[in-house]
Write a structure and sequence with these properties.
Tetracycline Repressor, domain 2; 0% strand
């Protein structure tokens, strides 16, 4: 059976980025973890940045798959949005690489990490935008700017899940869903 060196390199780099962060990961380190020569890495990837992009792209696909897994066609749009966002943020808070990247951005402000985290956020917003456009077309929700609505949904969800907990008791999934419906999906009007 042929050894998939590319896969071994990606797995080793993922492990290194997850343990040490982007800045502290070197191609020598990845080569040692993958048990390949450093030159072998360069047959597949031009540099550390390209390898990092490959890993983050796979991570985004995995996140979207996780969100898709919790969507149920018969449920109301608001419930599916809540379920998908909750799963995305749960994934983000439990995945070792995401945890390390968020920590590195916060502590060191590494530009490449900030750019990749922005890429992840952009992909989540694009995913939500697509779902919102479908819901608008089906008449499940009123017409609104899908991209702005996606942005607001994500930011509000992050605020309720992460930022609120800094000074308050964590909110239950049900309470977050209720707040999302009241403030964003239904509005404040009576």
């Amino acid at each position: 059976m042929a050894i998939d060196r590319r896969k071994m390199i990606v797995e080793a780099a993922t492990k290194s980025f997850s343990l040490f962060g982007y800045k502290a990961t070197t191609m020598d380190q990845v080569a040692r973890l993958a048990n390949v020569g450093k030159g072998t890495i360069y047959t597949f990837f031009k540099n550390k940045e390209e390898l990092f992009e490959e890993i983050v792209s796979s991570l985004v696909k995995e996140m979207i798959d996780e969100a898709e897994d919790v969507i149920e066609p018969g449920m109301p749009f608001t419930e599916n949005v809540h379920r998908a966002l909750y799963r995305l943020l749960e994934f983000r808070s439990q995945h070792q690489l995401m945890i390390k990247l968020i920590q590195e951005e916060k502590e060191m402000g590494t530009l490449a990490v900030s750019e990749m985290l922005q890429h992840v956020e952009d992909e989540i917003i694009a995913y939500l935008k697509q779902k919102i456009e479908i819901a608008i077309t089906k008449g499940a929700i009123p017409a609104a700017d899908p991209e702005m609505t996606s942005f607001l949904l994500l930011k509000m969800y992050i605020a309720l899940v992460s930022d609120w907990e800094k000074n308050h008791e964590p909110l239950s999934s049900e309470r977050i869903a209720e707040l999302m419906k009241v403030f964003l999906l239904k509005g404040l009007s009576i």
